[in-house]
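FYI - complex with glutamine, inputs then prediction.
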Amino acid sequence: MTYKELLYLGEKVLGEADIAEAKNDAWLLLEMLCKIDRNFYYLHMEEAADPVQIREYQQLLKKRAERIPLQYIVGETEFMGLRFRVNSNVLIPRQDTETLVEEALKYAAPGMKVLDLCTGSGCVIISLLHYAPYMQGYGADISKQALLLAKENASLNGVPVHLIAGDLFSRVDGFYDMIVSNPPYIKSADIAGLMPEVRQFEPWEALDGGEDGLAFYRRIIAECPAYLRKGGRLMLEIGCEQGQDVRELLVQADFHEIKILQDLAHNDRVVSAVK
Ligand code: GLN
C-alpha cells in the first residue's frame, strides 16, 4: 500500500465514522506516525509504505473512529503559538481561551504575581509567562495528574511555573496582582449533549460547572478577595451565555471596572473585573 492509498484509506475510514475533519485528521495521523511532511508526501506518495506503519496507521484510525480526540491520540496541541502535551487527564486547550490570555497580557507588568486556578495542562499560565516572562506565575489544580502534565509543559516551553496541588485556593497563600481562570462551566445536565469526543473522553471534572454552570464562579469570586491585592484584576473565561450572571456575582462582591469581552466568533468569553 502506498502513502497515497494509506491517506485515502484514512479519509474513508474517518469519513464513514462521521468525523467532521476526516481529511485533515487522516493527514495529521499519517504525518505523526510516519514522521513525514507535505513535501515528503508529494515526492514519495506513490511509494510503498512500511508494513508495520500500515498496521499502526490502521490502529490510529480505529481510535479516532471511536471518537478519541485527535489531540489525545497525537499527544499534543497548539495554543497561543506554543506546543502543549495533552492526555485524557486534562481539557484540550481551546482557541477560545486565547481570548483570556490575550486580555491578561494587556495588564502584564514586571514583577507581577499571577495565579491561574484550574490550570489543567497549564496552557494559560505557561503562555502568559512565555509572552510576559517578567511576571511570576502560579498554577493551581485539584488534579495531581493534570499538574504532572502542567509541569512537563512548563519545561517543554522553558518557563518557570510554581504549581500548587489543591482545590481552588485551598493550598494558595499570599497576595496576587492578577488571578485568571478558565474553570469548568458547563451545566451538569448539558454534558450528555456535548460531542462524543468531549463527553466521553475529556475529564468530567474539567467540564462540570454544577447545576447552573456557575458553581466555580461563585466560589472563586467569594474566596478571591483574600488572595487578590486591592486594585488587582480577576479574569474569568465564561460560557457564551454566562456574561450577565457572572457580572452580577462580581457586582454583588463589590468588584468594579467589570468588562465582558468577546472571542473571535463574537461570543461573550471573558469577564474581567478589579477588586
Ligand atoms: N486552564 C485549562 C485550560 O484552559 C483547563 C481548564 C479546565 O480544566 N476547565 O485549558
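The mean pLDDT is 97. Residues 91, 93, 97, 118-121, 123-124, 182-184, 206 surround glutamine (CB under 6 Å).
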